Amino acid sequence: MTRNNESLISDRARLLGPKLPTFYEEPVHIVKGEGVWLWDADGRKYLDCYNNVPHVGHCNPRVVEAIHRQASTLNTHTRYLHDGILDYIERLTGTMDASLNTAVLTCTGSEANDIALRMAEAVTGKRGIVATDATYHGNTALVSQLSRSNIPSAGFGLDRFFRFVPAPDSYRNTDPDGSNFADAVTTKIEELKASGIGFAALVVCPYFLNEGFPNHRDGWLKPVAETVRKEGGILICDEVQSGFGRTGTHFWAHQKMGVVPDVLTLGKPMANGHPVGGVVTNAETMKVFRSGFRYFNTFGGNPVSCAAAMAVLEEMDDKKLMANANRVGEYARGRLEAIRQKYDCIGDVRGSGLIFGAELVLDRESRKPASAFTDRLVNAMRHRGIILSRLGRGKNTLKIRPPMPFTVHNADLLFDTLDEVLAETPLIQ
Amino acid sequence: MTRNNESLISDRARLLGPKLPTFYEEPVHIVKGEGVWLWDADGRKYLDCYNNVPHVGHCNPRVVEAIHRQASTLNTHTRYLHDGILDYIERLTGTMDASLNTAVLTCTGSEANDIALRMAEAVTGKRGIVATDATYHGNTALVSQLSRSNIPSAGFGLDRFFRFVPAPDSYRNTDPDGSNFADAVTTKIEELKASGIGFAALVVCPYFLNEGFPNHRDGWLKPVAETVRKEGGILICDEVQSGFGRTGTHFWAHQKMGVVPDVLTLGKPMANGHPVGGVVTNAETMKVFRSGFRYFNTFGGNPVSCAAAMAVLEEMDDKKLMANANRVGEYARGRLEAIRQKYDCIGDVRGSGLIFGAELVLDRESRKPASAFTDRLVNAMRHRGIILSRLGRGKNTLKIRPPMPFTVHNADLLFDTLDEVLAETPLIQ
Q1: Which end of chain B has the smaller Cβ count within 10 Å, N or C?
Q2: Distance, CA of A118 to CA of A125 (rounded, Å)
Q3: 8 Å CB contact of A75 and B273
Q4: A86/A48 same-domain check
């Protein structure tokens, strides 16, 4: 049936329960998508500058066709033999360091991270996990412990295994080579060791997407990776957001940050919205994990999911979407920097490729986050037909992370609108 | 690329890691499916008597068309408003007791059970979980603890919250009204209370599918449900396998067993292989859960998943597949009973609707499981073009659980072949 917004909101509360988050003060009722565009039920068109799941564009014809073709032919599980999963993992791991050569396919990034933490326990015999205090890695009982913004009241006491370091903040703290971050992690590792829990892994998004993607020079994770290995733990890179060419310069953000993770987790954009996630690791870690578990995932790695995921890689190659991300991202940061010259509230411009944004502050001296202002800005942009969001510890960083076919022309529309909205929106916190 | 079986097997070991299970001594390379039929790479046709995920038939045109149509229109997440998820949950919960009126959609049954256990903790403030010793409820760190057949060596110490009762066995133990089962659960609840952990929930498949679907009269779960509530816990019914009309007489097996669960979990057949799972509960439990967690699942409840799941419900109604399951299931058990008269190795015929099978024993007196024989039988059936499997504590129960459009004609082919294979296969353990 077709509901109006009022009925949609009340039926959501009734059928999905209270407190289910929506975006915006006035939630959007999206009914159609194509490329970088979305349409609401009133026929209004929005430029999507936020959604990274439709990586190669909303309703990408190649992906839709791959799903349709394979769903019409066969959809079953990995207890039968099939070429699809093998072809996909061969091609996927071909983009990585030679040591990352074996994978488990799941349906979500949460499932992937849930496996990654168990791999860490299996390999090290320890359970202590370190992460940043402004991150998110998923929703299972185990991995939801990694979100300090969402401390679970029911979590089977798993919180005792987790320790948090302050999220890197390149705008306020100087840490040019990442050694301060490594020192902070060392402190938490020592705490874990002293407590008797021991140290198993550091889990990070190598581009710190949820933390507000601080500006770090290439290779910035090297010191902390060294620390982690020296202390007997493993490095888990969660590239659910940062991977698949998003940063424009490298296919994987861990490559940009100069490290090879022991375990790499994938999700969101992997199959353009078809539910696919995965864990890639080295043969030795996989062997230890598979000796401890008879892990099987009914839907994971099914032929349709693999066809959808393969179509994403093919589309990226064919359309040279990583190069596009690099080129359009540079142009976008240039325009954003020009806007920064005009408005004092823009404290810092950041990003790489098609993850970019700006931190909004009450003034450039105190650098105090303009959180409420950023919220108003995001809502005002929505009313002007631009979909974006905000994130970071103070929720004051514009999070701009569009589908990869985003163009210079799209960037112009985004920043022309932002310029207008900034001119109209008073900076009152 | 197209690999031969040898290359498929060696590439699996290389790319997916060791110990990834396949079915059969000689794994099957399936390339095509339609209705109740599968084809291998050599063009050989198999009658699928095993796979419950393609609930309304392999490559069901209505489901494929629904996926294609919605994937071409819009695929996004539940932070925007959309009718699809609301229409689906309205229709889904319409098949249930009025108290089961709110849902969370996930991508897998594992994710659903992971939520269910946290709901139990949120509602009761306790963490002790009781299950049977021959069950399976999924693969996350938390729910993999429920599988005694797969004791995880790495599981963050979560095993301390779980207690196991012997799986019901209607063939060897008398428990006509389920009160012995209730007593066994009471003992484990008392253990949990004495240990200081406390009691949160009993988790069962109401038709005990993994335990070998013992013959229980309707209403058999009533005593244990009463016990669970009296002891302050909640009843979680995992209907990943038993639901969606599988038993022929009721849409949900918990209805057949005379109880209303506090939490119901769903998965496998829900969207015919498209990765969808879900948790259905009452408004109060949902409220308590959502107060404790900001649970969000990126892919869960997306428009394509909801369209696929809705198409399954529509197809079931249109084709009257539950009535078909009832009719064909009765016919099948009749034929199986006739075969039992002929072969001493068949100890017990069981099932309801399109879950049926027989327990194979070395002799009818000792009732000792003919495990190795059952394995040979399953492999011999595969070579005759019949796909089925075995399960239960002794892995000696034929597990026959075909797609729901299975016909009397299909059942004849299955049992004619079984008859031939039994005549040829020597009963040597």
Answers
A1: N
A2: 10
A3: yes
A4: no
Region B373-400 average pLDDT: 94
Considering the domain architecture, whether residues B138 and B286 belong to the same structural domain is answered as yes
Q: Are A263 and A384 within one domain?
A: no
DSSP per-residue string spanning A262-311: SEEEE-GGGGBTBS-EEEEE-HHHHHHHHHH-----SSTT-HHHHHHHHH
Contacts of A280 (CB under 8 A, 6+ apart): A92, A93, A96, A100, A102, A103, A263, A264, A265, A266
Q: How close B343 gets to chain A, by Cα (Å)? A: 31
**Structural domain contains residue A429:** no
Among B5, B71, B275, select the one facing A64 at the smallest CB separation. B71
Chain B residue with minimum CA distance to A50 = B76
Shared domain for B33 and B109, answered yes or no, is: no
Domain end position, chosen among B282, B300, B318: B318
- pLDDT score of A389 more than 70: yes
Q: What is the mean pLDDT of residues A254-267?
A: 98
B290 touches A: beta carbon within 8 Å: yes
| Confidence (pLDDT) at B153 | 66
Are A279 and A384 contained in the same domain? no
Model pTM greater than 0.95?
A: yes
Q: What is the mean pLDDT of residues B106-116?
A: 98
Q: What is the mean pLDDT of residues B186-193?
A: 98
Instruction: Give A-chain residues touching B86 at CB under 8 angstroms.
Output: 3, 8, 11-12, 15-16
Strand, helix or coil at B87? helix
Q: Which burial class, exposed, middle or buried, applies to A283 when counting CB atoms under 10 A from its CB (0-12, 13-18, 19+)?
A: middle
Asked if residue B429 is part of any domain, the answer here is: no
- Say whether both B115 and B42 belong to one domain: no
Quick check: A55 and A355 in contact, CB under 8 A? no
Domain range enclosing A328? 5-56+321-424
Distance (Å) from the C-alpha of residue A294 to the closest C-alpha of chain B?
6
Question: Please, which pLDDT band fits residue B429 given cuts at 50, 70 and 90?
Answer: low
Per-residue pLDDT, averaged over B303-331, amounts to 98
Nearest to B297 among A102, A108, A152 (CB): A108
Does the pLDDT value for residue B410 go beyond 70?
yes
CA-wise closest residue to B133 among B107, B151, B115, B113: B151
| Pair B234, B248: CB distance under 8 Å | no
CB-nearest to A32 from B73, B107, B121 is: B73
Check if B81 contacts A (Cβ < 8 Å).
yes
Asked if B22 and B376 count as a contact pair (C-beta separation under 8 A), the reply is no
**One domain for residues A358 and A312:** no
Structure confidence by residue, pLDDT tens digits, A340-365: 999 999 999 999 999 999 999 999 99
Residue B300: the pLDDT is: 96
Which chain B residue lies closest to A240 (C-alpha atoms)?
A: B298
In a domain, A193, yes or no: yes
* CATH assignment of the domain containing A387: 3.90.1150.10
* pLDDT confidence of residue A153: 66
Q: Number of folded domains in chain A?
A: 2
Identify whether B165 is part of a domain.
Answer: yes
Same domain, B82 and B227: yes
In percent, how much of chain A has pLDDT > 70? 98
pLDDT tens by residue, A102-154: 999 999 999 999 999 999 999 999 999 999 999 999 999 999 999 876 666 67
Nearest to B299 among A76, A89, A108 (CB): A108
Instruction: Please check whether residue B128 touches A, CB under 8 A.
Output: no
Structure tokens at A366: 């105190």
Residue A23 forms contact with B (CB below 8 Å): yes
Domain closes at, from A273, A290, A318: A318
The CA distance from B288 to the nearest CA of chain A, in Å, is: 9
Are the beta carbons of A8 and B80 separated by less than 8 Å?
A: no
